[in-house]
Amino acid sequence: MEKRQELYAGKAKSVFRTDDPDKMVLMFRDDTSAFDGKRIEQLDRKGMVNNKFNAFIMTKLQEAGIPTHFEALLSDNESLVKNLDMMPVECVVRNVAAGSLCRRLGVEEGITLTPPTFELFLKNDALGDPMINESHVESFGWAKADDLAKAKALTYKVNDVLKAIFAEGGMILVDYKLEFGLYKGEVLLGDEFSPDGCRLWDAQTKEKLDKDRFRQGLGGVIEAYEDVGRRIGIDFDA
Length: 238
Ligand code: TMP
Ligand code: ASP
Known about the structure:
binds thymidine-5'-phosphate; 29% helix; alpha+beta; binds aspartic acid; 6 helices
């Protein structure tokens, strides 16, 4: 497999073509962004940590029967993935109230949500990733209704698998964002799962161990990501 020219540079990852049109290389950079790209900083080791974190989680999800684009870890900062036709929507499940839910609805951070909520956002930084609903997705052709239904069902299934993994490491999975795409007609989980796209709190102290440390200027961002990783059994030196 040969890595070819860069196709696209996102806020934290770059995507490269390979000599196989069905496969791409994801390169995880040290760039860390918040507030729809309005703030970007480089954090040492971040690319490596998120690449290995994502590889570990995608493998666990695949073992649990959730189809993902992940193929293989290629290096500290790169992974091989399937080339998906991405839906431009973000699927968010929340187990506990935090972030934009609290701002939008005026609810207190930390309230348990039973059942967990499911929300959709349009992937559009210029518009600030506005919240949308299922009918928007269909009317604007961002995805077919049955593909969106599959993505939604997979998003909930991910919750069962990951809540248990993080609970074993003494953490609460507060919320997370997933992105899906189509590969030869099948809906697969794409993008990444790392502490950049979820909220994780220590179960005892409620300490924030995710990108809110960066958003809120709490410091120790990558140290927290590594701590989360070690608590669920990731060896970042491997
Ligand atoms: P929110 O509280 O800002 O709506 O975010 C909910 C969760 O989804 C949180 O874990 C962060 C994640 N998320 C992203 O990673 N990127 C995004 O663009 C959005 C809208 C959410
Ligand atoms: N939307 C992501 C966040 O809230 C990334 C970004 O805003 O740049 O952190």
